[in-house]
Amino acid sequence: MLRMLPTALLLLLVLTSTIPAQETSHYPAGVEGIRAATVPGPGQYLKWYNIFYESNDLKDPNGNTAPVGFDANVFATAPRFIWITETQIFGADYGFDVLVPLIHSDVEIPGLGLGNSRTAIGDIYIEPILLGWHGDYYDIGAAAGVWAPTGDFKVGSTANAGKDFWTGMFSLGSTLYLDDDKSWSVSALGRYETNSGRSKVAIRPGDDFHIEWGVAKQFDKVFDVGLTGYCHWQVTDDRGAGVTWDRSVHDRFFSVGPEVQYFYEPAGLIFQTRYQFEFGARDRPQGRNLVFSFVKIL
């Protein structure tokens, strides 16, 4: 399915001039993997995400480990209700969805005397446009939605559940099937985020671009096993009078790891688990991402 999830990595890092406090994006790349760009057929679905992220490695703008004793553990649980209607637009199934996350963040930076732990509701994601096209050897998904700054936010905290700015997110991707039975799949899903200014600090975070990909083999129509990953690039400068770091420094990171899916047809349930290792990070944490989610066909 084409799936959007509010951020599990909501880290406002209040750092010194040698470790810039770049804003993190709303969307936590990596929450989707195998057939990420495939939108389901008409019906109602509940997808429930559970994301565990940990990092002990904060990277500076050159990709080197910052000597500040960084330690982050973040857990997010987020139900998402999806309704794909019988209506078609340009030959695509039309749907919409909404998601509300609960986030626990525990972030410590002893070298800078910073640290917070808190649990709170995060920013709500509303997606009024969700489109899915289906062919014999492909699926195409497209979507547009908005993150609303409804989550808990406190200036100076390292463990906020909200971001304090609006974000428009636009998604487009495709899943290709390499055989008649659709047992082999290759997928890629791109997302572009553009942000408003923050309400409490004079900063407008730069735009971000993500790609999530997956390669998988299906067995007996119920098991999928594959390799998944994600890529992230900040593509425009942070702006505003509150930007005290080098605006030309843009964060980036990549990841790769295995995924397993299981479809229990009698109950209409799909279980998904993936574990990914980040690498090549700059100006942000580098860690590990464990995602467990399930989809209930209603």
Blueprint of the fold:
Elements: E1 43-58, E2 71-89, E3 92-99, E4 102-109, E5 114-121, E6 124-134, E7 138-148, E8 167-177, E9 184-195, E10 208-219, E11 223-234, E12 252-264, E13 269-282, E14 285-297
Antiparallel strand pairs: 1-2, 1-14, 2-3, 2-4, 3-6, 4-5, 6-7, 7-8, 8-9, 9-10, 10-11, 11-12, 12-13, 13-14
Your description of this structure?
- The chain has strands at residues 43-58, 71-89, 92-99, 102-109, 114-121, 124-134, 138-148, 167-177, 184-195, 208-219, 223-234, 252-264, 269-282, 285-297.
- It has 298 residues and is mainly beta.
- Strands 1-2-3-6-7-8-9-10-11-12-13-14 form a twelve-stranded antiparallel β-barrel.
- It is globular and about 55 Å long.
- The model is unreliable at 1-22 (pLDDT under 50).
| Main β-sheet, spatial strand arrangement | 1-2-3-6-7-8-9-10-11-12-13-14
User: Into which percentage range does the β-strand content fall?
Assistant: over 45%
What do the pLDDT scores average to?
88
Portion of residues in helices? under 10%
Order of helices and strands: EEEEEEEEEEEEEE
Shape, principal axes of CA atoms: globular
List the total number of helices: 0
**CA radius of gyration:** 19 Å
- Low-pLDDT parts are 1-22
What attributes characterize this protein structure?
14 strands, twelve-stranded antiparallel barrel, 298 residues, 0% helix, mainly beta
